[in-house]
Amino acid sequence: MEPLALLSQSKVLVVTGKGGTGKTTVCGVIANLAAQCGLHVLVLQVGEGPSDGALARPSQLARLFGQEAAIGWEATALAWVPNGGRVEARLLQPDVALVEYLHLHGMRRLSRRLVSSGALDVVATAVPGMPDLLVLGKVKQVERAAAARRPGAPDLIVLDAPAAGHAVRFLQSPHGLLDAVAGGPVRSQAEEVVSMLSDPARCQVVMVTLPEETPVTETIETAYLIEDRVGAHLGPVIVNGRLPRLELAGSLTPEAVRAVADRSGVVLSGPQLADLCAAGRLRARRQEAQAEQVARLGQSLALPQLELPFCFNASLGPPELGTLTQSLAQGIAGLSLAAP
Ligand SMILES: Nc1ncnc2c1ncn2[C@@H]1O[C@H](COP(=O)(O)OP(=O)(O)OP(=O)(O)O)[C@@H](O)[C@H]1O
Ligand SMILES: [Mg+2]
Q1: pTM for this structure?
Q2: Shortest CA distance to 20 belongs to which of 170, 221, 165, 235?
Q3: Where would a tag sit more exposed on the chain, N or C end, judged by fewer CB atoms within 10 A?
């Protein structure tokens, strides 16, 4: 399958997964690949809590693109590709989304009063589910602009969603508000968000996992919850951090390691030889454990898997972004073979 074909299936890709599995990194990688395909991509990051201080936070996403920019409500440009593709990012905060909503619906005076009285955050977060609806309402507004091809609207929206434990609650909030609110703007906003989330041509959920036991278990559970409770369509699962496969069988005895070292002109002391053998055995065990978890994921979830390699660097920047983007493109190209 061509990357562009996969990336054009839905206007919104909601990226979620257990905390720390690489959601933000994967958002950057998907956005980078889509930009290389000539798309204008907007990464929307869901902020936690009120907007105060958010602008001061260093951005992991920006660093991936070799930038130190802090990402705030207004779009920050992260990458341009000569073919016209580009990546932008915005941070979505419920309180700023509420102010914008009130402005757009003729309630400027009310929004000014909320800001000046300090009550803004209280109002934006007082009703359970309301912060999530404000954020998802903003995503839906950008998605509608994208679908209508309005000037400046992106071709693809990648949502860096909350971690899996919170993702179901986050995506389910509009359903909850539909049960609780009989009419008015909150209900119609919730209805519109629910219809976006449940339409595969508009939105897909991409789950990110590590090839390890706990993240895989959580991914399987969350995938079923997202399908059943949110009614959202699940795209491929991204298995992030897969160790590049080394053929180690038969090469982990002291004699075999010593022979390789001799051929390379490296002189090893006894302890060094023992440490190298132990490291090799650990790597072999980890490779095997990862393979078992990837197989378990495949047996439990009938979804295509795309693997991204583990990068052996302390922090990820443009070189790693390039490597991961290439892997994603190769993985998608391979999907045609496995496609039904
Ligand atoms: N393929 C990879 N190889 C090596 N390191 C990685 C890889 N993917 C992500 N990382 C590193 O793992 C850490 C977590 O990644 P990231 O911030 O993308 O995860 P996250 O799921 O968004 O985390 P959070 O739940 O805190 O938002 C980061 O330090 C990142 O640089
Ligand atoms: Mg993150």
Answers
A1: 0.92
A2: 165
A3: C
pLDDT digits (tens, 9 = 90+) for 88-135: 999 998 888 887 887 787 787 877 777 777 776 777 677 778 888 989
Q: Is the CB of 25 under 6 A from ligand 1?
A: yes
Q: What is the pLDDT of residues 4-56, one digit of tens each?
A: 999 999 999 999 999 999 999 999 999 999 999 999 999 999 876 555 545 54
Extents of the domains making up the chain: 3-246+302-338
To the nearest 10°, report the CA torsion of 119, 121, 125, 126. Answer: -20
In short, whether 310's Cβ falls inside 6 Å of ligand 1 is yes
CB atoms within 10 A of CB 20: 10
Q: Are 22 and 208 in contact (CB under 8 A)?
A: yes
Tell me the C-alpha distance between 177 and 186, whole Å.
8
CATH T-level fold of 3-246+302-338: Rossmann fold (3.40.50)
Q: How far, in Å, are 281, 284, 285, 297, 320 from residue 246 at the CA level?
A: 11, 8, 11, 22, 20
Rounded CA separation 331/3 (Å):
9
The verdict on the CB of residue 20 being under 6 Å from ligand 1 is yes
CB 24 within 8 Å of CB 158: no
